[in-house]
Design brief:
Elements: E1 5-10, H1 19-33, E2 37-39, H2 63-72, E3 75-82, E4 90-97, E5 100-106, H3 114-117, E6 126-129, E7 132-138, H4 145-152, E8 158-163, H5 171-184, E9 188-192, E10 194-195, E11 204-205, E12 209-211, E13 217-220, E14 228-233
Parallel strand pairs: 1-2, 2-3, 7-8, 8-9
Antiparallel strand pairs: 1-14, 3-4, 4-5, 6-7, 9-12, 10-11, 12-13
């Protein structure tokens, strides 16, 4: 096993469409989280606004986030629309560290009105950090057993996701995390939007969490924006 890995699942306040303001909010979380990996919700950098413009990994508005990663020695996984082929963007998970930003994963399983705007990603993905191979997921992906199975087949040490659920659907986080942990024997970390996210979500669930490989919750945030779940995996 690799050395223990400290992870945090964050739910910062969100200003719809405002990449600059949200990058500053993300940066503040990264600096305070004291975690090697900080996970943010689905579309966290724009809010859940399906018509938001794709975010270029080189966008200068992301520089405060990159600087915070450099100072804290952290990897941040945040949500943004990303450019795709033929004018069809993707709902993506971007990875930031002190060297810059890249697209790490594109959501495969779209829901609601998302297919009208976005193209699905084509393949599962992993990201290696500090000897840990992290399987990546975004929201509806976590509810599709085939997604977790295909991701686990790549060889993963943990499964991490950015999510958005309405407050009334908060139990979904526990259900999905426990299923993935039980079926694949890995810890699960989910960052879940809290408060207003833009779009039609005026009250998101929050309740970000980290679950052990046995499915037991080992850290949970509350329902309010600004809360954080943090745990060290592999201890």
């Amino acid at each position: 096993m690799p050395e223990p890995l400290t992870v945090a699942a964050a739910q910062p306040p969100c200003t719809p469409y405002d990449v600059a303001a949200n990058a500053l909010a993300h940066a503040a979380v990264i600096r305070s989280a004291a975690a090697r990996v900080v996970i943010f919700p689905e579309l966290s950098i724009t809010g859940y606004e399906l018509d938001a413009e794709p975010v270029d990994p080189g966008d200068p508005h992301l520089e405060p986030l990159v600087a915070a990663c450099a100072e804290a020695g952290s990897l941040a996984l945040f949500g943004a629309p990303a450019a795709g082929a033929a004018g069809r963007p993707h709902i993506a998970m971007l990875a930031a560290d002190g060297s810059g930003v890249s697209v790490a994963y594109r959501k495969m399983w779209l829901g609601g009105a998302e297919p009208e705007r976005f193209a699905p990603g084509e393949a599962p993905a992993t990201l290696e950090v500090a000897g840990w191979r992290l399987g990546l997921a975004i929201c509806k992906d976590t509810g599709v057993p085939e997604h977790a199975a295909a991701t686990a087949a790549l060889g993963i040490d943990a499964y991490v996701a950015g999510m958005l659920e309405a407050a009334a659907d908060a139990p979904v986080l526990d259900e999905r995390a426990r299923r993935v942990a039980a079926e694949h024997g890995v810890p699960v970390a989910i960052a879940s939007f809290a408060g207003s996210t833009g779009g039609e979500y005026d009250r998101a669930a929050g309740r970000s969490g980290i679950w052990g490989p046995d499915g037991a919750a080992i850290a949970r945030a509350g329902p309010e924006p600004g809360e954080l779940a943090r745990a060290t995996l592999g201890e």
